[in-house]
Design goal:
With 220 residues, the protein is α+β, with helices and mostly antiparallel strands. Helices cover 29% and strands 33% of the residues. It has 7 helices and 10 strands. Strand 8 and strand 9 form a beta hairpin. The radius of gyration is 18 Å and the shape is globular. The two termini are 19 Å apart.
């Protein structure tokens, strides 16, 4: 069930909720997943994004999101200039790929420490987005709720241990999904919660056995 603001569309700078506001939110979500402002961004536009990205400001919008701007930020049209000022280098390419949502962006982001993530996301209408893939793991992350993302070894008891720690903090889980490469190897857990977990609680989860990394992604 959509509300009236979902139907009317988001408050935004730019001509298109899908190609501008959605692109900005993709950049904003990708920045949150990286955990820092990127130093370098290599961006691929696919389908409709590739066909109209200049006219609809998709390129400026996604860079604005990577800089931490919301879709209604009046600085959005000047994101290229601001990126140069803060030392964010970026490039765009238009590969021919099939089987993806027509408004897809694939981002390879690197921060100042050299940490890199690869993110595939799509703008699905009305300014709404979904992150389809993170570092090769398929997922379905919309930013509608705060999320905890945990990379871990696939071992018995890991999921139960994490959910127990969340319960001990008073957190309430809205949804949970665990995706593994292969039995006994690396897995990725995506947990949506009603409220964002505190850094202290995330540190407790990170320190748990078999956890490789854990971080939160705020509600957009």
């Amino acid at each position: 069930m959509h509300g009236v603001f979902d139907i009317v569309g988001p408050i935004m700078i730019g001509p298109s909720s899908s190609h501008t506001a959605g692109a900005c939110r993709l950049g904003l979500m990708s920045r949150a997943i990286l955990g820092h402002q990127p130093k370098e961004a290599v961006i691929e536009f696919v389908g409709s994004f590739a066909a109209t990205y200049r006219g609809h400001g998709t390129d400026r919008a996604i860079i604005a999101g990577l800089l931490g701007m919301a879709p209604d930020d009046e600085r959005l049209p000047y994101s290229f200039d601001i990126a140069r000022e803060v030392g964010l280098t970026y490039s765009f390419s238009l590969p021919k790929k099939t089987g993806l949502h027509p408004n897809t962006a694939i981002l390879r982001l690197t921060d100042a420490s050299g940490h890199t993530v690869r993110i595939e996301g799509a703008s699905i209408g009305g300014g709404n987005i979904v992150i389809r893939e993170l570092n090769g793991f398929r997922l379905d992350l919309s930013g509608a709720l705060p999320s905890l993302i945990v990379a871990h070894l696939d071992r018995p008891g890991v999921i139960a241990g994490i959910t127990r720690l969340i319960a001990e903090t008073g957190g309430n889980i809205a949804s949970i999904r665990d995706i593994r490469e292969k039995r006994g190897q690396t897995a990725l857990m995506v947990i949506e919660t009603d409220e964002e977990l505190s850094p202290v609680h995330v540190q407790r989860i990170t320190a748990s056995r078999h956890i490789l990394t854990a971080f939160t992604v705020p509600k957009l």
